[in-house]
């Protein structure tokens, strides 16, 4: 029996060592290499010259207002939603005014009390005036009664002014549209507590837009009010023009970039606030700016992003996201993301991906 047990134990150990050896051998087997993708490339150059310069901007309403209140209270109703067209004077928001109603009641009671006091003071004044004419009271007594009478009149006037103040506050519990336009943002709902100065709605004048661009300090001196600029709307692939209407005199709060506003001259109803644009200003021919142009078919688009594949170290594909400017025929202007000398992939035999090995044709 002992001999049989030893024989089985040795056989088991041998089998286990064989399995481990095979497993170890399989793990060390080399992984098959990925087949390289054959591509065509072109060197990125900046030999194309364009007079002037381009900056990024976006479409904004020319007239916009944040709707808020000066009163603290719970919102009892909001009569507008984002996208609604609102006419001037329409009631947009109602805020609870129970506190004001109570205060107005107190003020009216004060007015009644002050007017009753004024009536008594007037009777005393009239009586003392008659007595003074009859030399029955002294000048001092008449002066005291006159002072009391004037104070009573002032008390009535103060109470009435308090009533006017309270009534004016009711306007802030029933908020109306300051002009006709479209609701572009909503920050509160019925039941929320409104605080003074807190924006509740945003309304924008319909059909009136402008482009706001950020111009670097080394270019701002070449821009003048009334200057014409070409505006490229990326989302609708359309070119329009605008006129410089306003130039900021300071860049202290905008990181060295100067805000420039341009009036738009178009009747296109496809314009929406927030659209990104490329604004091109014409420059002096003596100060031409070099720009990078790439073929349209080399662009890769994912969502709202546009990029290209370039050749990286060890001949692998690298995806680079770009900031794209205007379109010139079949080429796009590159505002940032590529540099002169980069190797741009313009075609490939199969689908590219980040890190794909390449064979350059």
Tell me what the structure shows:
A hairpin with a 2-residue loop joins strand 19 and strand 20. Helix 2 packs antiparallel against helix 3. The strands form six sheets. The protein has a six-stranded antiparallel barrel with strand order 3-12-15-14-13-16. Strands 18-22-21-20-19 form a five-stranded antiparallel beta sheet, with no helix packed on it. Strands 4-11-9-6 form a four-stranded antiparallel beta sheet, with no helix packed on it. The protein has five domains: 29 residues; 82 residues, conserved putative lor/sdh protein from methanococcus maripaludis s2 fold (Beta Barrel), CATH 2.40.420; 89 residues, Beta Barrel (Elongation Factor Tu (Ef-tu), domain 3); 59 residues, OB fold (Dihydrolipoamide Acetyltransferase, E2P), CATH 2.40.50.100; 74 residues, Helix Hairpins, CATH 1.10.287.470. The chain is of the alpha+beta class and 361 residues long. Helices cover 26% and strands 36% of the residues. The N terminus is likely disordered. The chain is built from three helices and 24 strands.
